[in-house]
Design goal:
The chain is mainly alpha-helical. The chain is about 65% helix and about 0% strand.
Amino acid sequence: MAGELQAASTPKRSAVCNTCTLRLVRLAYQRAPWFRLVREPLRLGMRTMAFWHRIDPDDYEVRTPSCQRCMRFYKVALKERSATFRLLNALANPLFDALLERIVSAEAVQEAKAYARTAMAGDRS
């Protein structure tokens, strides 16, 4: 009970999202099904590291239902807590982004950025 009171009184943390990667990934999965073979191991590694560091995505404020359990929350927390993750992310993220941007159009990237801006404002459902 004391833990529940403490959890209820602890303010939720905020994660800033500039591009809705989830939207882009869904589109990439449709256009290039093999992209799962690239993303899913990275996603599993991130979730494993989050588990190792006892990161709870529920500690973060979710502004829209579509953002619930987004990997962004894991990524933000891992960047704060893990030097190993920061190094791995610095190596893998530019390659991941470049590959993703080759699969989806520049227009889709702009739409994902606009979606993220409105979602951060809490305007999306």
